[in-house]
């Protein structure tokens, strides 16, 4: 089977547009197979999450093939690559290890699931003593069994063989992502609510009730095999454990995983399914003995009953959520990013979900293959940056100043800030030339004698080439009078990493020849704080030498190109067929709907400010058509739609949406109130949100002189506030 890995090398050397890890030779193949890009974590011995770093030790040198010399050369000596932690903050089998820098909020999460720890004195970087908390071994094991085994494995096992509460990712509260049985008194005992009379927001189509029948049948099969075939059962047990609990131990999962990780244990669940099948044989054996050796009737009776009660119920409960026919959300939303970009556009994206659907559209459907998606998360890897120098389909090579070897591993991995006292802002092109330069004065000498590139100022400017902007159609005609001569910003961070550097390099070298877009301007604000020059156009934000008007500006997003955004949203975008009542709306689709609604809201607001009421109505109609409120539960951002309806003179629609929103949040609050006082503690944020939304609904009704409605809302608000006093 190992010969199949040759396909990776052959494909990589073919120079395909998508070439993860670029495993072109044995060394890069080993790195690829070892998943080195994902880093390392402690397994049997290592640091806890509060551990201070006291020094660094050498790692394994990184080699690269030099095709001119015909041998491998060291490109990163890794002499100080591995952190050494204070031994007082290390221990055996560390489960609580990820710092807040590695996973924001990790420390509070560990305290919630494991415990607060015990105080230990350490010396900080300034040489002063400070008291830090370190988990006890008991707390460490508590976190392992309660979170890593209980929540991140047993919960997934029970999803598959008992039932699933909903498809909302949960982190421990009683309303999101739990396993259920479908038996009210058991679910009420476990979760504080029978999971039967739920408000609309929690009537999730991802809910599945199996009444524990597959699980019980699996236990029966385990007993049956243990009795009939002990050695065979040991084999299945080992398969079950090595693909389940052993994976839990190896992964040592951190808090706040970005998505549910049930797929990690699929093989373990398949092993349990073997026992489910054997459970059928056990029932046949029992019934055969009861019927006094009448085997055929026993087989027929058990086969019919178990087929109906186990796979039958599972199919009925899961068919809707697993049916992908007529659902095109991933394809269409990915396409919406691409069609929002002009020819030869450069689009900076950030993660998997705003990249893979784009790749699919370009690779399979041939949509906008002239647009280059530059994933800034992947751009931390040298292999990815090397591919930006290539032409991909109709997309020309990226405009880059630095040479490829200046982006290889071990070179410019992190460029620190060293204030050189430069007065005023530095031209971005000169800034990049400084990084590119081999002049010794552009390097700092460290205590160990190594030279390290630094950047000398945080104040950056771009002098705008107006002629290039006009020639290449960077700025729409109606905005050209508002163009600025120079763009200024300040770098916020004290270090630039490869993905920061390649982005700044591309912007500087491009010099307005190709349009530049961001999927989310706020994501690059630490190194490229230019949201004040970004304009929403459909699903993306275009970087232009135009200062956003204060009336249009939203922090982290910038302004709106009203006409351009209207044209894209109304005439070019597709919406995944999610308005079809038969189509299941998965969590990722729900997240993308937020983006759509935000884009429609901002474009409609622009139209109203510019006295284009009919176009604002068109946009509101787009929302009604593709994301109707009889299928989609109103959220906090839908408050803006209520106001928009009032502003365009559609009072009846405003009142209808207001009442629907009021009813939804009122029922939510009643649901939270059904829990005990202790159970309500898990819903404090949701309770505050619900009360705030109802209060805001009252303010909106009062603002637009809907006084009877405002009076009714005030009555509901007072009633709900009393319930939570």
Walk me through what this model shows.
There is one protein chain. With 725 residues, the protein is an alpha+beta fold. Helices cover 44% and strands 12% of the residues. The protein contains 24 helices and 23 strands. The chain has a 6-stranded mixed beta sheet with strand order 12-11-20-22-21-23. Strand 11, helix 12 (356-365) and strand 12 (372-375) form a beta-alpha-beta unit. Helix 6 crosses helix 9 (266-290) and helix 11 (329-339) crosses helix 12 (356-365). The longest helix has 28 residues, at 295-322. The chain is globular. 34% of the residues are buried. The model has no long low-confidence stretch (mean pLDDT 93).
What order do the helices and strands come in, and which of them pair?
Layout: H1 6-13, H2 26-33, E1 45-47, E2 53-57, E3 62-66, E4 71-76, E5 82-85, E6 90-92, H3 106-113, E7 118-123, E8 129-134, H4 137-161, E9 163-164, H5 184-191, E10 208-209, H6 213-228, H7 230-242, H8 245-251, H9 266-290, H10 295-322, H11 329-339, E11 346-349, H12 356-365, E12 372-375, H13 382-388, E13 414-416, E14 426-427, H14 428-436, E15 443-445, E16 451-453, E17 459-463, H15 466-471, E18 486-490, E19 495-497, H16 498-510, E20 516-518, E21 534-537, E22 540-543, E23 559-560, H17 562-571, H18 587-609, H19 613-626, H20 639-647, H21 651-673, H22 677-680, H23 684-703, H24 707-723
Parallel strand pairs: 11-12, 11-20, 14-17, 21-23
Antiparallel strand pairs: 1-6, 2-5, 3-4, 7-8, 9-10, 13-19, 15-16, 17-18, 20-22, 21-22
Helix pairs in contact: 6-7, 6-9, 7-9, 9-10, 11-12, 17-18, 18-19, 18-20, 20-21, 21-23, 21-24, 23-24
């Amino acid at each position: 089977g190992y010969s199949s890995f040759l396909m990776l090398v052959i494909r990589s050397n073919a120079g395909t547009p998508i070439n993860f890890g670029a495993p072109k030779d044995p060394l890069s193949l080993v790195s690829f197979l070892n998943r080195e890009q994902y880093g390392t974590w402690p397994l049997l011995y290592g640091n806890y999450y509060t551990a201070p770093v006291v020094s660094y030790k050498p790692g394994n040198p990184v080699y690269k093939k030099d095709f001119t010399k015909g041998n491998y050369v060291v490109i990163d000596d890794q002499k100080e690559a591995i952190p050494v932690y204070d031994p007082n903050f290390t221990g055996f089998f560390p489960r609580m290890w990820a710092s807040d820098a590695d996973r924001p909020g990790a420390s509070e999460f560990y305290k919630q699931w494991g415990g607060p720890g015990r105080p230990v004195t350490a010396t900080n970087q300034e040489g002063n003593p400070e008291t830090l908390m370190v988990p006890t071994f008991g707390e460490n094991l508590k976190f392992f069994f309660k979170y890593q085994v209980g929540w991140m494995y047993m919960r997934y096992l029970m999803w598959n063989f008992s039932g699933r509460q909903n498809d909302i990712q949960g982190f421990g509260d009683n309303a999101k992502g739990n396993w259920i049985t479908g038996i009210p008194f058991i679910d009420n005992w476990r979760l504080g609510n029978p999971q039967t009379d739920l408000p609309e927001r929690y009537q999730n189509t991802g809910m599945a009730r199996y009444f524990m029948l597959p699980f019980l049948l699996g236990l029966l099969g385990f007993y049956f095999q243990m009795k009939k075939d002990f050695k065979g059962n040991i084999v299945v047990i080992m398969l079950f454990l090595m693909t389940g609990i052993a994976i839990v131990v190896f992964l040592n999962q951190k808090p706040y995983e970005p998505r549910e990780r049930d797929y990690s244990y699929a093989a373990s669940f398949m092993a349990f399914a073997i026992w489910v099948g054997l459970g059928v044989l056990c029932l046949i054996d029992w019934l055969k003995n009861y019927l006094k050796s009448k085997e055929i009737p026993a087989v027929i009776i058990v086969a019919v009953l178990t087929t109906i009660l186990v796979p039958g119920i599972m199919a009925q409960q899961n068919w809707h959520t697993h049916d992908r026919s007529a659902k095109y959300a991933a394809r269409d939303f990915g396409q919406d990013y691409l069609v929002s970009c002009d020819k030869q556009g450069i689009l900076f994206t950030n993660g998997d979900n705003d990249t893979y659907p784009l790749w699919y559209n370009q690779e399979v459907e041939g949509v906008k293959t002239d647009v280059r998606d530059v994933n800034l998360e992947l751009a931390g890897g040298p292999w990815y940056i090397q591919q930006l120098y290539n032409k991909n389909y109709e997309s020309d090579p990226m405009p880059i100043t630095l040479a490829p070897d200046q982006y290889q591993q071990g070179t410019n991995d992190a460029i620190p800030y060293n204030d050189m006292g430069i007065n005023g802002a530095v031209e971005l092109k000169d800034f990049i030339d400084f990084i590119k330069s081999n002049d010794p004065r552009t390097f700092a000498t460290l205590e160990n004698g190594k030279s390290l590139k630094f950047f000398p100022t945080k104040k950056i400017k771009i002098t705008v080439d107006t002629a290039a902007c006009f020639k290449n159609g960077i700025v729409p005609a109606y905005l050209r009078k508002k163009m600025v001569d120079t763009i200024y910003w300040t770098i916020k961070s004290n270090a630039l990493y490869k993905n920061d550097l390649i982005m700044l390099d591309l912007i500087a070298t491009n010099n307005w020849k190709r349009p530049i877009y961001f999927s989310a301007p706020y994501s690059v604000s630490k190194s490229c704080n230019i949201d004040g020059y970004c304009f929403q156009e459909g699903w993306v934000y275009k970087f232009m030498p135009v200062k956003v008007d204060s009336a249009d500006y939203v922090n982290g997003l910038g302004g709106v190109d009203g006409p351009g955004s209207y044209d894209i949203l109304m005439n070019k975008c597709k919406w995944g067929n999610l308005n079809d009542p038969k189509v299941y709306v998965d969590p990722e689709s729900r997240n993308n709907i937020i983006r759509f609604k935000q884009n429609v809201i901002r474009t409609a607001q622009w139209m109203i400010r510019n006295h284009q009421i009919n176009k604002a109505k068109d946009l509101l109609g787009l929302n009604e058509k593709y994301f109707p409120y009889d299928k989609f539960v109103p959220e906090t951002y839908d408050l803006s739609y209520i106001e928009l309806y009032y502003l365009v003179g559609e009072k009846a629609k405003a009142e209808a949406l207001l009442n629907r929103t009021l009813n939804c949040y009122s029922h939510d609050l009643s649901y939270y109130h059904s829990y005990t006082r202790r159970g309500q503690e898990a819903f404090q944020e949701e309770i505050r949100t619900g009360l705030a939304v109802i209060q805001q609904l009252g303010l909106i009704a009062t603002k637009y002189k809907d006084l009877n409605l405002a009076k009714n809302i005030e009555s509901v608000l007072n009633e709900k506030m009393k319930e939570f006093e």
